[in-house]
Target: Bifunctional protein FolD
Amino acid sequence: MPAQVINGKEIVSAYRTEIKQEVERLTQQGVQPGLAVILVGEDPASQVYVRNKARACEEAGIYSEVHRLAAATSEAEVLDLIGQLNDNARIHGILVQSPLPAHISEEQVVEAIAVEKDVDCFHPVNVGNLMIGKDGPAPCTPAGVIEILKKVGVEIAGKHAVVIGRSNIVGKPMSILLLRENATVTVCHSKTANMAEFTRQADILVAAVGKPKMIKREHVKPGAVVVDVGINRLDTGKLAGDVDFDDVLDVASYITPVPGCVGPMTITILLRNTLEAAKRAAQ
Ligand code: GUN
Model:
């Protein structure tokens, strides 16, 4: 029997409706959640992501402002803008879109964002809090994956989850969040020998590699839940995930489509993190 393709649109739409209602309630109490996005340079993919984030804010009733800066903007100017946004009471979340031009240090930029406004959960203090299980934001993509699994009704506790990828944005925090949900977690990466031996043991397989269609049916245990975080642009212009969807479809029990599931859920968690930051500021 082919896998059930997870209906990202339906899950995301229902979740955004819940968020919008909470935003409305908070706004009526005098605090409209606000997000500032900083985009430096003209990276075409980043421009699309930033546009989508701003549109999602608008639809949810969240105030948003996008600061589009020229690629030649100095690091000092970016840090100065972040300082102003840190002091701006209208803004509860600040997101600096990656990648930044080479002359700007991602580390300096991330550390300049006020911890309580770091809706990406990239600041070392928030990463540390995530690690020890303290309250606070969780990074948008991995938190979105957990939310998808929960909304579909996938049991995580006691399951073997295998994460492919160890980036700071996805793979590492993904493994921590799965651990927090009481999964047994294995992390595979580019230096893992005999990767299929590990991935074939996965009840839940999360692919976050950035290589189109790398995960084939031989990597997947029959009945596994397969979550595809990859968004890769093919030479044909089409988007493909890290998972070879057609090859894996009749092996998995559930599979996420690309595009249309993890991507929109990532933005939804950004809305949630902004809402939560505004709630904490209102307390
Ligand atoms: N670039 C790609 N993904 C992300 C993300 O989640 N946050 C930011 N700030 N930049 C990104």
Summary: The pocket of guanine is lined by residues 95-98, 120, 140-141, 169 (CB under 6 Å). The two ends are 51 Å apart (CA to CA). The first strand starts at residue 4 and ends at 5. The domain at 140-263 is CATH 3.40.50.720 (Rossmann fold).
